[in-house]
Amino acid sequence: MRIFLTGATGFIGTALVPELISAGHQVLGMTRSDEGARALTAAGAEPHHADLYDLDSIRRGAEDVDAVIHLAFNHDFSKFAENCETDRGVIEAIGSVLAGSNRPLIVTSGTGMGAAKPGQPVTEEDKPSANAHVPRVATEFAADALVEKGLNVSVMRLPQVHDTARQGLVSYVIPITRQKGVSAYVGEGTSRWPACHISDTARLYRLAIEGAQPGLRYNAVGEEGVSMRDIAEAIGRGLNLPTASLTPEEAPAHFGWLAAFASFDLPASSVITRKRFDWNPTGPSLLTDLANMNYSA
């Protein structure tokens, strides 16, 4: 297949491009810069200059392809709600090009968007909730709206995707810990974040676009939940800093905008996804990558 990949030069995109190409697919990779274009060409992909805020450029990328994987997202959390609405617009723009065909589109969301029962892991069957803790549900609502119009759209829900350089939201915890001089968790630290190694995540995207079915959700989860205390202790060891428990009232002053995420228990299951694609994650665990990263970089 010829696949248009937004976010092709990002963290996951740089792992997904070779995964797709090695499987025999052609990649049209979105980039905003000449540097990104050179990197994509070197990786064997065709660069396509586009921007999330230029929907015409996004539409052009989706025109002459067999499938689209939408990874790109602005992670400036100071305007998170605005960025989520931008994502909705991008999905709608791609959908306008794919309308009337069965060409698959995979959009990217997060495992925390699923409305699971308290204490239970989010599953692929849990629909997004309008009362979710973050506005990223806009992504899934946009995907569902396209499915209702007859498009072949599915959703990839991501946990903390990691290697030894980046670890999703955990990457934001590390500089906070360095600044505060203590590696903290809330309460007993039993709240959990799901995780998946980047190599397993890239492989799942490839399997999902090859076998895409409309209306499905895929949970890219290698570990159902890693406790915040274990994460804090791993970071503390890496930075040679003490570990401490905070009360919920103390958390905002320490974590800032991350306080809510640090307090919520957000486990997620990938049982259905594993069976659907015979996908068995084999990459290192989150704690292994945290132990092996270079904290002086």
In short:
The protein has 297 residues and is of the alpha/beta class. It has 12 helices and 12 strands. Strands 3-2-1-4-5-6-10 form a 7-stranded parallel beta sheet, sandwiched between helices.
Chart the SSEs and their pairings.
Blueprint: E1 2-6, H1 13-22, E2 26-31, H2 34-43, E3 46-49, H3 55-63, E4 67-70, H4 80-98, E5 105-110, H5 137-148, E6 153-158, E7 160-162, H6 170-180, E8 183-186, E9 192-197, H7 198-210, E10 217-219, E11 223-227, H8 228-239, E12 243-246, H9 251-255, H10 259-263, H11 271-277, H12 286-292
Parallel strand pairs: 1-2, 1-4, 2-3, 4-5, 5-6, 6-10, 7-9, 8-12
Antiparallel strand pairs: 9-11
Helix pairs in contact: 1-7, 3-4, 4-5, 6-8, 8-12
Determine Rg (CA atoms, Å): 19 Å
How far apart, in Å, are the first and last alpha carbons? 39 Å
As for the CATH topology of the largest domain, it is Rossmann fold
Main beta sheet strand tally, sense and closure: 7 strands, parallel
Number of domains: 2
* Helicity, as a percent range: 40-55%
CATH 2nd-level architecture of the largest domain: 3-Layer(aba) Sandwich
SSE order, one letter for each helix or strand: EHEHEHEHEHEEHEEHEEHEHHHH
**What's the CATH C level of the largest domain?**
Alpha Beta
Which whole number gives the mean pLDDT? 95
